[in-house]
Amino acid sequence: MGDTAKGACAHNRYAKLCSKGGEGSLKKQALSKSGSTARAEGMSTIRIALTANSIAALRRAAADCKACDLWKTGTQTVFGEGASNARIMFVGEQPGDQEDRAGRPFAGPAGKALHQAIAEAGIDEAEVYVTNVVKHFKWSPAERGKRRIHKKPRYSEIHACRPWLDAELRVVKPQVLVCLGATAAQSLLGRTFSVSRQRGQLVESPLAPMVTATVHPSSILRAPDDESRHAQMRAFVGDLQKVAQFARRRAA
Ligand code: SF4
After folding, report:
1. Residue 151 has what pLDDT?
2. pTM to 2 decimals?
3. What is the chain's alpha carbon radius of gyration, rounded to the nearest angstrom?
């Protein structure tokens, strides 16, 4: 089977997930919340996520999402952005401190590293859509000072936010889906997925015709010295060059 046929199958399988199993699991998710208000909010969120046909409409709806408690701590919903017909979708974990304030994904230092690597890999930004598996900033106050310290989202929060990501995938239909970091990779590709062992490899998935994972760019910023930071950035650009090749292969 050629790439095009495989891609069609992938999207058909994905459409079935959305219309059957996806909706069923989403309903189960809403019903597991306690109280009629939470149930009503959850079902309303699900209906919008399953039916809206543009990123703008999804973004407007997600601005009022209360499907998990993170809306209470984040300043605002940080929805994905980029071309609504992008060939490549990058998915990270959640917005950080600067993204939370700006209301835009990958607007802080990690985003700067990502966009630099995208340019160095020869990927056209006009073909890119960036988003996160969780759309509110989860944080706790620093012991001293006013810093907001990033906290990893729980599985239940990732699960609650999944309808939005599924809806973005349904609307954008990327040819290549790139998970950035372990949280995105494990939530989309399975809990046993290892970014350190499997980065840059193509993974079978109904989510897009070509799916792969690499590190989150924030990990590059945490490198202990300049030398290792440069080495990690080179490896990251190398992974994105493979992504560019995947995208070219799909277009051929
Ligand atoms: S993190 Fe996602 S599910 Fe939770 S309130 Fe925000 S948009 Fe809704």
Report:
1. 94
2. 0.84
3. 18
Evaluate: CB of 87 within 6 angstroms of ligand 1: no
Low-confidence ranges of the chain (pLDDT < 50): 1-28, 30-33, 35
| 137 Cβ contact list (under 8 Å, min separation 6) | 70, 73, 74, 75, 78, 94, 95, 96, 97, 99, 100, 148, 150
CA distance 139 to 152: 8
157 Cα to the center of ligand 1, angstroms: 7
Which residue, 134, 141, 53, 49, is CA-closest to 94? 134
| All structural domains of the chain with their residue ranges | 3-251
Nearest alpha carbon to residue 216 among 178, 177, 181, 179: 181
Residue bearing the CA closest to ligand 1, atom 3: 161
Domain 3-251, architecture per CATH = 3-Layer(aba) Sandwich (3.40)
Q: If you search the block for the tokens 């609650």, which residue do you land on?
A: 160
What's the rounded Cα separation, in Å, for the pair 120 and 114? 10
For residue 21, the model assigns a pLDDT of: 38
Number of H helices, E strands in the chain: 11, 7
